[in-house]
Predict the structure.
Amino acid sequence: MVLRATVAALGFEGYVPGMTEEVVESLLGAEAAVARVQLAMRLRKLGKYAEARRHALGASQAIPNVRNDPESVWHGRALFEMALCEIALGRTAEAQTHAAGASTVAGGRPTGETQLVFALHIYESGNAAGAMSLMTSPSVVEHPRAAAAVAIWRAGTGL
């Protein structure tokens, strides 16, 4: 599936390869919520999208979205992880909603990765020209992982 391949390398800031459910359960409070986001990343990498989404949702509900709070970055990462899982599950409208939430945490403007999620939803909604416009925007082109993902998408779609 082109969508899964496109987003496979996105969203791994703070990734911990060995994160397990047992580790998450041994922690409390904010540490547990952050570890839950890391577990969601690991599960998504393993192709367990629904399970990863469930963990990301739990983390997003446990981490407050408070401006200038260092933990809020993990709230944004949880929302973006949910967006990537939704794309992998073929639900681009839901992905766009979560990516929009993640972008408001990240200083209030979309990153190249969130712009790409918006573009994928626009494309899947039947607007190839609108999607290409976003995919060629500076925020996507200048973001190395987003630019690489666009190349994968273009190869898979022939555009």
In short: The longest helix spans residues 29-45. The mean pLDDT is 90. The radius of gyration is 15 Å.
